[in-house]
Amino acid sequence: MKLPALVPVLFMTYVAVGLAEPKTLAVSLVFALAILFGIRRGDRVEWRDLGFEIDERYVNYAFWIAIGIILYQVIRLGNIPLLHPAIRTHLNPRLTALTYFLGVPASVYLFIRGKRYALLYPVAVSLYAYRTPVLVSIIAIGSAYYESAKGEGKLDVKKLAGILAGGAGLFLLITFLRGNTLSSLWVRFQSTVSALDVIIWRGDWSGTYGGQLQWAGVASYIWGGYSPRGLIAKFLYVHTGATITATLLGGMYLDFGIFAVIEGFLLGLYYGAVSKATHPTTRALYYSTLAYGIVGVETGILDLPVYVLFLLGAYAVYKGWKVMRKREAH
Questions:
Q1: Which end of the chain has a smaller Cβ tally under 10 Å, C or N?
Q2: 205: DSSP letter
Q3: What are the Cα distances from residue 176, in Å, to 19, 39, 180, 185, 329?
Q4: Residue 18: strand, helix, or coil
Q5: Is 164 exposed, middle or buried (0-12, 13-18, 19+ CB in 10 A)?
Q6: What are the pLDDT digits (tens) for 215-234?
């Protein structure tokens, strides 16, 4: 099984274990099958990976800028959010987003190139006291190691387990320092599935927001306003300023209803094609977006920095596909 297949498999597992309603399970199954079908079709796309010709020193600069931004924000706050989680709401959201946009693909690229200091990024970003970026970083780096080492016949299970265990340790540390328990994680898990249940039952079959929810993932970063998860909370009549996650499907369904399966197919098509990446820059984009997709099973894919990474990956595939078409024409 190719790693991208984990996205629909984990998604269905998530909603099933979360005891979703039968209607939710049925819509989720169609959505998951659309992703799998897209992966299968994408795997047949012939393209030549030209990558992005970027000097490695610039990737290094991006990596250290991301680390620098993290340290700057900690200094500006005068305290460490990891030790005092309540202050994490005072982090600058645009700088935080820039940290993710630069740090995740740069650390994966450097890891692929044999720079072990790339593992500093998940440790540094854990200072923000947010679990998602730590999980994304560890999954991306772990996936890169797994496929690279397996392809070369040098897979060290202990090393892979060490990377994943380190990530799990950071995740649990953040969880406990934030005053949460494992039981509270289970409550969040069930509430996320319950939110999807309400969306499927109350949302219009042809869509409620007509694309505005996912567009808010762009607009909220540029000129403010409701975030996508804020719009989900608004739909669920939660008016306390809270944001709510509703799985990978929730935001898409609120925008386009049952036609969210088309987005699912396109997501799978992207993963199926980009999984054949060979250039280090494209592979870094592949593993980064794969990690966001896996974590997005719970959080959704609803943020501008993530959109940009997907667009860059899709552009690399399109550019390589055009080259192959020109060769065939001649």
A1: C
A2: T
A3: 26, 37, 5, 11, 59
A4: coil
A5: middle
A6: 999 999 888 888 999 999 98
